[in-house]
Specification:
Layout (H helix, E strand, L loop, with lengths): L6 H5 L7 E4 L10 E4 L13 E5 L3 H4 L4 H11 L3 E5 L9 H10 L3 E4 L5 H34 L3 H11 L4 E5 L5 E5 L11 H9 L6 E5 L2 E8 L7 E7 L5 H18 L4 H16 L11 H6 L5 E6 L3 H9 L4 E5 L2 E7 L4 H9 L3 E3 L8 H18 L3 E3 L6 H6 L2 H15 L4 H13 L4 H8 L3 H14 L7 H14 L3
Amino acid sequence: MSVPPSLGAILRTPRLQLRLLHGTDKLDTPVRWVAVSELTDPTPYLEGGELLLTTGMRWTHEMVDARAYVQRLVDRGVAGLGFGIGVVHEQVPSTLVDAVAEYGLPLIAVPRPTPFIAIGKEVSRMLAREEYEGLTKAFAAQRQLTRAALQGAEAVVDRLGAELPEGWVLLLAPDGSPLHARPAQAASHAAGLAGELRRLQELRQPASVSLSADSRHITVQPLGVAGRVRGFLAVGAPRALGTEERTLLNAASSLLSLELERGDSAVTDRLRGGLLHALVRGAVTVTGPEAEALRAALPAEPVVVVAADPSPAAVSWGRGAEEGLAAVVDGRFTFLGSARSDPAGSLAAFTGGPVGVSEEVGYDALPEALAQAERALEVAQRDAAALVRHTDLPGGFLGLLDTPAGTGMAQRLLAPLREHRASADLLASLRAYLAASGRWDAAAESLGVHRHTLRYRIARIRELLPGDLDDPDYRAELWLALRMTERD
């Protein structure tokens, strides 16, 4: 679960040069955002958890009640108050210092060289980093859950329990009896949940429920598909589950629901589809001795990934395929099969297309193969072709960009130059300049013009384009756009 940066973490940022005047016991206070206000009562515009910044402008022209001001901030849940010194006040007003000491609100002196926006940017950066790390951990945990599902329901429960080290996980049968628990002693909680489970079973539409018992937050989710309750998953923790933890719980519930429905042929199709989705997204790998059984049940290498429109004909063909995995992935019919059987040719002949197929790959390159098949399908759709193989398409980054969306983006990027009356000269000059890595003499020589002429054209290009021509990322985008539009 991602956690907002603490007040202490912000204070420890050297370049901000912040100084704590009061609140050494509150350095662990989380800061959820930064707000700037000169109002004597900014609380209607705050949610709580903010670091409030002010220069104290009103404190010079108005008789501000410092105690009432600070009390309002504390009641609103403000994380701390930052006072800009050297702008309106050379020092923090003594009445404000006394008030924060009385109410226990952290007070920070912000030196004049430090703009308020720099503090806001730093907190925003910290929040983004925490969120990214949280999502990365959650994604890795979901991959572990998916791998565990290949070993059965008990392995999923154990994996979820490992991801919730302070909690317990309990898999229950429809009658409330424990099937598996992590840790084992968590099975004792089943009796206390019996009444809640009966209430859930009586509902027309099964729903999850959260409750508190013995200083624990407990979440119970019914398991099954199509309204059938095949069991329950209960999780207990010392606090309410965070966003990433709830995501893991939902993922585990889906996997367990499919596992409990394994006997149903329709659900078996969904299980196969779920396995295909996990394989092509890289969530499951088939390397190592522990995956030998799975590898034996999959199509023989080399394999190909096939993509097509999710038409009834394509879905019907996938169900009838003797060897391979079929599912609708991200709105596309997707099939994984052995390259030796040419499933793409068979599907194109059955449906009439459009069909895209990847290069022949091993199971360690399925995510790339999925991207190849999707790109080949886009070209087949654009060109009204029955079958397009990725091996016949241009390679490299230009090949990846060779889509209607990529071409449109390239045209928009170069539009300011293409619409100019001297567009041919400007585009040629930009290409030569970028190809020569900004070396004037080499670029001018390749164009057959004087370097002063080239300098004038590049100066005009800088005026027309919205981006910074000295930015390497922007130059790279321009170069790709030029290459993409050379075929127009």
